[in-house]
Specification:
The protein has 342 residues and is α+β, with helices and mostly antiparallel strands. The protein contains seven helices and 17 strands. Helix 1 packs across helix 4, helix 4 crosses helix 7 and helix 6 crosses helix 7. The two termini are 30 Å apart.
Length: 342
């Protein structure tokens, strides 16, 4: 699974530009589903089985990124953020600009510390003050690289192994969920009903893609596979419950919704039967695809099973592959017994 996760992480795909990861997911799912299609807004929809219950699982294909806003006369690039960035972490990082002639490495430069005034060191830098340097000296030179306004920009980097079964990289939110979705579709062969696996677009821009796909499929139950906060050393006690390596997270409440009680019962009983330890999250921040289930059509029973991940929405997210594997086992078993609950 780690090899596939590496491919997913390193497929350049931010919100609104999900083509690369969608093509990779189509390739991986081929032969394991009965049909694959792409809807009008770009969601990937794979189906297997027939009849009731109609089960939908989703994972969003997009990640945070940047977009070319303006090319200055000196060749530097002004940019706009795409998704929920912590703008304090933008300075002094490598990025990749995807223009018409291929990827171009750039850096978000900052003034050397030697030249900063005392007050400069105390305040966060506004993104409007930042520019991307791609090594050119004029706007014409930058344009000759194939770069123009509207091109998308990703973090620079790859998936790396850490101690034990932990990995780090940008976009684990939600490449981890995409991996889990693929592995579930590969592992589930005999079940009652119809199973839809949906790779959604533009989740980071406000849960955009899932709304249309959920409306069109009209499932009896919808489950999203996403990432959620995990404890790290800089957090205060009680701020976050979940820890890496201690199992899937049941998303009881987020900023927009509550987990449907029937979904919660389904998750808890299946986990107990399989001997899988669960963690629980009650949060006032963040949301995932399942958060709009209750307001889709006449209301769709929905909830999220998430993978704990440190440093969300940064280029150094950290997850534990043992949690990923347990999510796959849990959700696969849930699909097999869904007929008992829906």
């Amino acid at each position: 699974m780690e090899k596939l996760l590496k491919k997913l992480v390193e497929a350049p795909s931010i919100s609104g530009f999900e083509d690369n990861i969608r093509d990779l997911m189509k390739k991986e799912l081929k032969g394991h589903v009965s049909s694959i299609k792409v809807d009008k807004v770009g969601n990937l929809i794979a189906q297997k089985g027939k009849g009731s219950p109609r089960i939908m699982i989703s994972a969003h294909m997009d990640e945070l990124g940047l977009m070319v806003k303006f090319i200055d006369k000196d060749g530097s690039i002004k940019f706009e953020t795409v998704g929920g960035w912590d703008e304090r972490i933008l300075p002094a990082r490598k990025v990749v600009v995807y223009g018409s002639k291929g990827p171009v490495t750039g850096v978000i430069g900052t003034k050397p510390v030697h030249l900063q005034e005392k007050d400069d060191k105390k305040r966060p830098i506004d993104k409007k003050e930042l520019s991307i340097d791609v090594g050119t000296d004029s706007d014409k030179e930058t344009e000759r690289l194939g770069i123009q306004v509207g091109d998308f920009i990703t973090n620079h980097g790859e998936l790396s192994r850490m101690a034990g079964s932990k990995v780090t990289g940008h976009g684990l939110d939600d490449r981890v969920g995409c991996l889990e979705l693929i592995e579930v579709m590969k592992s589930v062969k005999k079940f009652k009903g119809t199973l839809y696996a949906v790779g959604t677009v533009q989740e980071e821009m406000g849960l955009i893609g899932v709304r249309g796909s959920m409306y069109g499929i009209n499932p009896d139950v919808m489950l999203s596979l996403d990432t959620t906060y995990a404890k790290s050393s800089e957090m205060k006690p009680g701020e976050v419950n979940a820890e890496l390596g201690k199992g899937p997270v049941v998303e009881i409440k987020d900023a927009m919704s509550f987990m449907n009680p029937r979904i919660k019962n389904w998750v808890l009983k299946t986990a107990k039967a399989k001997g899988i330890k669960l963690q629980y999250d009650v949060s006032s921040g963040g949301a995932q695809d399942s958060s709009v289930g209750a307001i889709t059509r006449e209301g769709i029973a929905s909830g999220a099973v998430s993978t704990p991940t440190r440093y969300l929405h940064t280029p150094v997210e950290v997850a534990d592959m043992s949690d990923v594997k347990n999510v796959v086992v849990l959700v696969s078993e849930m699909i097999k017994n869904a007929g008992k609950y829906f």
